[in-house]
Amino acid sequence: WGSSSLWVGRKYFDAVMNYRFFREPVLDFIGRAAIDAREFDRILSRGRIIYPDEGVRAMMNLLSSHDTERFLTAAGGDIRRLKLAMLFSLTYVGAPTIYYGDEIGMTGGGDPDCRQPFYWLWVGESERVQLHDYVKKLIRLRKGQPCLTGNFERLVAKGMIYVYRRYLGNEEMIIVLNAGDKPAQVDIPLGSSSECYLDMLDGTRWQASSAGERRLTVSVGELSGRILAPSNSR
């Protein structure tokens, strides 16, 4: 659960398993579409405020655990929702934690069903292989891009669209989530001077507007996301 320290005469956890301000809202927004982006942002914001910044950055962000039903099961078996949740987990503030088997789409109900033996035959199933490759790509991005462990700024929270910026020094990435069941077009306000952005997942490029307030308009498929980086720095 984390180590305890003394602060103003009270004990507190430096970091905990982040059910309340990560798993639960992610499951409600991405896994079940039970809340909209505005409510999702409200819950996440509270979690970032009530803990010290050092604790927020070390928080154990998990989608599944030994005590809960697996995320894919809770999300009705929709692999797209699991992939989008993985994208969020590996680009959000905190320490992303992958419970064994989520990376290959294991299912399971509450304890002890969530503790089933690892499914070693996954290598022969294309959907599981594709999910595994996708998660590996997200992990490489997380480890290779310092801005993904830097500062956080919410840019858009409207309907089922959630957009945020991770930045550190002169480096930045913009993450677009569409937790809705229809494709969408997203208008994103820009604070940087970058002219073009590259999607690190599928390689598409998006040009920023040059007239008036600088903005970036991108399309995003249903239950999917984009990780956008200024292309002039890549």
Explain how this protein is built.
- The protein is an alpha+beta fold and 234 residues long.
- 29% of the residues lie in helices and 27% in strands.
- The chain has 6 helices and 12 strands.
- Strands 5-6-7-12-9-10 form a 6-stranded antiparallel β-sheet.
- Strand 9 and strand 10 form a beta hairpin.
- The chain is globular.
- The N terminus is likely disordered.
Which terms summarize this structure?
disordered N terminus; 12 strands; two-stranded antiparallel ribbon; alpha+beta; six-stranded antiparallel sheet; 234 residues
Brief sketch in words of this structure:
With 234 residues, the chain is an alpha+beta fold. Helix content is 29%, strand content 27%. A hairpin with a 2-residue loop joins strand 1 (4-7) and strand 2.
General shape:
globular
Rg on CA atoms, Å? 18 Å
Order of helices and strands: EEHHHEHHEHEEEEEEEE
- Mean pLDDT comes to 92
Report, as a whole number of angstroms, the end-to-end distance: 38 Å
Number of helices: 6
Unreliable segments of 5+ consecutive residues: 1-8
Q: What is the SS-derived class?
A: alpha+beta
User: Using DSSP, what is the number of strands?
Assistant: 12
- Across the major sheet, the strand order is 5-6-7-12-9-10
Biggest sheet architecture? 6 strands, antiparallel
Helix content: 25-40%
Give the topology.
Blueprint: E1 4-7, E2 10-13, H1 19-31, H2 37-50, H3 53-58, E3 60-62, H4 71-74, H5 79-89, E4 95-97, H6 126-144, E5 151-158, E6 161-168, E7 171-178, E8 184-189, E9 196-199, E10 205-207, E11 215-220, E12 224-230
Parallel strand pairs: 3-4
Antiparallel strand pairs: 1-2, 5-6, 6-7, 7-12, 8-11, 9-10, 9-12
